[in-house]
Amino acid sequence: MGSKHWEHFPHEADMGIRGIGSTRDEAFEQAALAMTAVITDPAQVSAVEMVEITRQAPDDELLLVDWLNALVYETATRKLLFSRFEVQVKDHVLTARAFGEPMDTAKHHMAVEIKGATYTALRVAQESNGEWVAQCVVDV
């Protein structure tokens, strides 16, 4: 089994994000980190402020989109970027804490703004090797 990580995958004018982990929770955390990496280098974002997020959806795929869109909302309204996530999913209820800091264009070198997570290429599943994958395309 591999280690948890995130990656991007090409998708026309938008960007695919994929979180991979040994648990569904880790995959959701890594998907959020991949989304941050579309905007800026997550290593440049200090985890000094915390935001709690709770979401509920009928299935894991819709929950992933709700989770990512909650982060987009928090980024837009609080002007925060996030670099660390603690996610717990149970019975299609997500409780999470996102850690980050206020946007600073001099420090963060922001590439694009994410408008939202979409249902395109949406997938949350456990692979045959035991790893969990959580992915979708974000509108940039």
Structure commentary:
A hairpin with a 2-residue loop joins strand 4 (80-90) and strand 5 (93-102). The chain has helices at 24-39, 60-78, 105-108, and strands at 5-11, 14-21, 49-56, 80-90, 93-102, 116-117, 123-126, 132-139. The protein is built from 3 helices and 8 strands. The protein has a single domain, classed as 3-Layer(bab) Sandwich (Archease, Possible Chaperone, Chain: A, domain 1). The chain is an alpha+beta fold. The radius of gyration is 14 Å and the shape is globular. The longest helix has 19 residues, at 60-78. The strands form 2 sheets. Strands 1, 2, 6, 7 and 8 form a 5-stranded antiparallel sheet that branches. A 3-stranded antiparallel sheet has the order 3-5-4.
Task: Summarize, please.
The protein has 140 residues and is α+β, with helices and mostly antiparallel strands. It is built from 3 helices and 8 strands; from the N terminus they run E-E-H-E-H-E-E-H-E-E-E. The chain has a single domain, classed as Archease domain (Archease, Possible Chaperone, Chain: A, domain 1, 3-Layer(bab) Sandwich).
Describe the secondary-structure layout.
Layout: E1 5-11, E2 14-21, H1 24-39, E3 49-56, H2 60-78, E4 80-90, E5 93-102, H3 105-108, E6 116-117, E7 123-126, E8 132-139
Antiparallel strand pairs: 1-2, 2-8, 3-5, 4-5, 6-8, 7-8
